[in-house]
Amino acid sequence: FIVKFPNNYDKSNPYRLIFAMHCMGASAQDIGGTNFRGDGAYNYYRLGSIATNAILVAPQGNSNGTWNGEQDHKFFDDMLKLFKDTLCIDTARVFACGFSFGAMFTYSLSLNHQQQLRAVACYAPANYNIWLPTNKHLPIAYMQTTGMNDGTCPWDRGGRGGKYCAIVHAEDNGCDNPKNLPAWTSGPYKVFDYQGCEKGYPVKIVTFNGGHTAGESWIPQMTWDFFSQF
């Protein structure tokens, strides 16, 4: 893994900790680097330029490809323990984000690490083709983006897809779940904030006119605004 510290890191000041999970074909070097990628998978999904008072981590998955389910859950646990033991972090403000397979891994963690992760942001997640643990059905703040022309991790693929990742967390957070979930139809993007959620556990869905990407210009600031409310 690669770690980015705030300027003038102070070991007596508890910092937010943000994990940025790479997509298939990318690596920790890509996520931790500043070389432009059209899919947005660089500079900690561009949070490196915004979340300047947080510790950012880019872990390395399976040979720049997929994430190894249970093994990488253990890897995440080991990293988190190491950082808790050696860095000054706010253990109540640990976050994760990722794109594509990185979003799928982040979603997987969100199902059984609700007590370790305060919030997650999943860019183009899917609820299949990855190991999913038994859901503990505990609340977690959840944000998600999906392009409505995404053919890789689609919004709805016959009863599975990104839409259903959001629905799971809306149900677990006690949100009002509309029968017809609003999605993009016009303009650059559509934001839908679930209502009635348990206090402190919002669920935000952003659908947009685009494909399989985390490179939309508004994603980093929207993510940081979502994380920094906690």
Task: Explain the layout of strands and helices.
Elements: E1 2-4, E2 15-21, H1 28-32, E3 54-58, H2 69-86, E4 89-99, H3 101-112, E5 119-123, E6 141-147, H4 162-172, E7 189-193, E8 203-208, H5 219-228
Parallel strand pairs: 2-3, 2-4, 4-5, 5-6, 6-8
Antiparallel strand pairs: 1-3, 7-8
Write a structural description:
With 230 residues, the chain is an alpha/beta fold. Helices cover 24% and strands 21% of the residues. The chain contains five helices and eight strands. α1 links the parallel β2 (15-21) and β3. The longest helix has 18 residues, at 69-86. The mean pLDDT is 95.
Radius of gyration: 16 Å
Beta-strand fraction estimate: 15-25%
Mean pLDDT: 95
User: What structural category characterises the helix and strand content?
Assistant: alpha/beta
Record the strand order, biggest sheet: 1-3-2-4-5-6-8-7
Q: What is the makeup of the main sheet?
A: 8 strands, mixed
**Uncertain regions spanning at least 5 consecutive residues:** none
Instruction: Measure the end-to-end span.
Output: 25 Å
Helix content, binned percent = 10-25%
Please provide the count of β strands.
8
The SSE order reads EEHEHEHEEHEEH
Features:
alpha/beta; 230 residues; globular; 24% helix; 8-stranded mixed beta sheet; 21% strand
Summarize the structure.
With 230 residues, the chain is α/β, with parallel strands linked by helices. The protein has helices spanning 28-32, 69-86, 101-112, 162-172, 219-228, and strands at residues 2-4, 15-21, 54-58, 89-99, 119-123, 141-147, 189-193, 203-208. It has an 8-stranded mixed beta sheet with strand order 1-3-2-4-5-6-8-7, with helices on both faces.
